[in-house]
Amino acid sequence: MIKVGVTGALGKMGKEVVKAVSEAEDTELVCAVDIFNTGEDIGSIVLGKPNGVKIESDIEKAINNSHPDIMIDFTQPKTIYENIGIYMANKVKSVIGTTGLSEEQISKISIMSKEKNTGCLIAPNFSTGAVLLMMFAKQAAKYFSNAEIIELHHNQKKDAPSGTAIKTAQLMAESNNNFKTGNCPETELIKGARGAQASSNIQIHSVRMPGYIASQEVIFGSAGQIFKIKHDTMDRSCYMAGVLLSVRHLYENNDFIYGLDNIM
Length: 264
Fold this sequence. Notes:
- It is built from 8 helices and 12 strands.
- It has helices at about 10-25, 40-45, 60-65, 75-90, 105-115, 130-140, 165-175, 240-250; strands spanning about 1-5, 25-35, 55, 70-75, 95, 120, 145-155, 195, 205-210, 215-220, 225-235, 255-260.
- It starts with a strand and ends in a 6-residue tail after the last strand.
- The mean pLDDT is about 95.
């Protein structure tokens, strides 16, 4: 049985993770960390029945009290780098769903993982459909001269562009080094009108709107044709298969991984 802890257990994603870990046959929820409802039973709040796991506010104390094999983290961009440092210092493997890490931070985490001999998997997106979109976009990028990304999320998402959009652009850039072929010189009459420029001149446009969970569309263009790839998230439960896949991988392996596509 894989012993799992969840940080950010009372967040929208955290609650789904608590349910998924509790229901899977090969995982056991041993600790729940959140800044709210400290001392209360996480099962009573999320599962509708007590399970004996009390919410703790201190990650390190939770680890020392319950000795999880793996911590799953869906918290905040401003705290995630520090959280990963705590997991590494305590030799606990971690599955990271919190986005907002910079390339420099991800590089440092990779080095830290090797130095501490402690596995870590960071995924911008755990939806198998969204990961397939990224993989297909990388393939399509070989055949189109121009491309832009539109990502849409709920209006409580704090980072922009999304980690999924950034990762998608990085993968596409491996296949093509310039996605503005033939564009005329551009002048933005309002700053930001053309979105943010990512790898290989890919423009990323971020939309934040109530009603959305997550959606991404990659638009490719070349002479005489437009090709679109789109993925929509209808319910956060779609992420759980990817989360559990990551947990099972790390339980059997001790490596650093960035992107769910590397284990699918």
